Amino acid sequence: MPKMWYAPVLLGLLLLISTGFVPKVSAAKQAAELPALIFVARSHLATADTIFDKELGPAGQFGTGLTKFAPGSKLVRRDPDGTLFVYNTPGLVDVQAPDVSFDGTRIVFAGATTLIPDTNNSGWRLYEINVDGSGFHQLTFSDRAITIPNAARYLNQRAYGTYDDLFPAYLADGRIVFASTRYPARAHYDDRRVTNLYVMDCDGGNMHRITSERGGILHPTPLPDGRILATRWWVNFNQPSEKGIYNRIDNADRDQTLPDGTTIYANPDEQFNPATGRLADGYEIRNAPNTWHLMTLHPDGSNFQRYAWTPYAEWALTIDSGQSDTYHAAQPALVSQGNELFVAFTAQQDGSMVHSTLKTGIRVARPGVAMLYANAQDAIAGLTYEKAWQRHDSSPPYALHPWGLPDGRILYAQSENDDSLPSAGEFPEGGHVFTLQGSTLRYRLYTMNLDGSAKAAVPLDLSTINMATADAMDAKPIVARTGWSALPDTFTAQPTDDPTLGNLPNTLPGYGFSKRSATEIATATIHNPNIYANAGLDLPYVNNSPPPGSVAKVELWVD
Q1: Are 230 and 259 contained in the same domain?
Q2: Quick check: is 20 in a domain?
Q3: 221 contacts 192 by C-beta, under 8 angstroms
Q4: Residue-wise pLDDT tens digits, 412-442
Q5: What is the CATH number of the domain that holds 106?
Q6: Position 263 confidence tier, pLDDT thresholds 50, 70, 90
Q7: What are the CA-CA distances from residue 35 to residues 325, 342, 471, 528 (Å)?
Q8: Of 56, 140, 183, 213, whose CA is between 20 and 30 Å from 552?
Q9: Cα–Cα nearest to 180, from 211, 155, 206, 147
Q10: Is 498 inside any structural domain?
Q11: Are strands 5-7 and 480-482 parallel, antiparallel or unpaired?
């Protein structure tokens, strides 16, 4: 793997506590030695989540934050001397998720032009601006050309008629990867819009989807070897059945039997949890997975695999399916120690990451299954598992959105209590009046060492830009990166986002809305000579792997 070089500073050597010596940087020195930073001054008051309308966590980030808008937010540069520069982004009412180009001269970010739902311009689009403030322009547009099946029925037009482009990141070859809901789908849990990864050229051309997720995939960021690191929300409630429908949430008050013999157990009064059951052959249907993993893939969508295993403690090593597991990881960020990479990430101690953007802490892991035991460590900032689960105390401070600095420290946002913050407001637009709400928590920028020591607030006076009550979020250093690799696309065929151009293969009943028959759709052959997922005997045990010799056949199901 090539070394990660940043200009003007080489990343410092860092070690986790478990490896012994950790280079220390004092808090005073941390505050004095910072490169230029790009961040978002996020307006403290935001719209409510579409499901959990009383949730007061920060907008953006993940889960409930993705449906929120914080009108009046600004893209801001902090120079090394502490002065602030507000970027002029005409027409945008909200901004989030900036990223810096490899040459350190451009910034890509997500912006919204309206809060009004169900219009052609609703949702988030991507924009680019030069670091010096010039050259502001739009990269993605409201130009998706698909047919929404049964648009006038089942609220499909409202569900799929608009989309969001979020979390852009530059690749070493100049292309941009980002998460988007352009591909129309809903997650099994909460009916959240499914996010997939897309890649496009630096000018917005040649846009194409590289994943086909059923839950979601967020927060892409490049690795030095050219792969893409991202957060995968793995949630799947449905179960296979050839002759009946297994409802993802079946609230029946008594057991039901499908035509193929599958039994669905009673599941009354459960708004979000899936029904469980027993297959016709007597095997119990296991609880549905609902977890967040750190994954890598190539820019063409191939070679999708786990990157780092993130259990909180040794008792959680083999609990990796969403049922009280502690593998929940989002917002991955690289931190380098010479030729060795660590990944800092946001974890949430309520175990879901879809109910709130509060209750968060920052943890650190090493890549690879061999580091499974070494990664069983608690948060180094924000809420810890020990505090939340053992002491039953989920109070703040909370921490999220880590990012690696050139000298090896971690830059992140952390909350502090401030009872003077506004708790309610309104935003008028085009005859609409949007209700806004906020918590008593203010998020400030901090730095710390890789072991969590020497935490220091970044000197930042947002009152100088007339945003005294805003939250400082989504910060990254404005530095050039050299020595990183780019991976060419091995697979160049581009999937369509139009659901009417797909159908079911073989003898399955076809979709009535499809424009293509079963003989007109593309099919694939899966070649996997080893269906067993167990790693080598010299590596830690990985959960959910069938015993070797126990599998007679593998079936693929359309969901």
Answers
A1: no
A2: yes
A3: no
A4: 999 999 999 999 999 999 999 999 999 999 9
A5: 2.120.10.30
A6: confident
A7: 38, 21, 20, 48
A8: 213
A9: 211
A10: no
A11: antiparallel
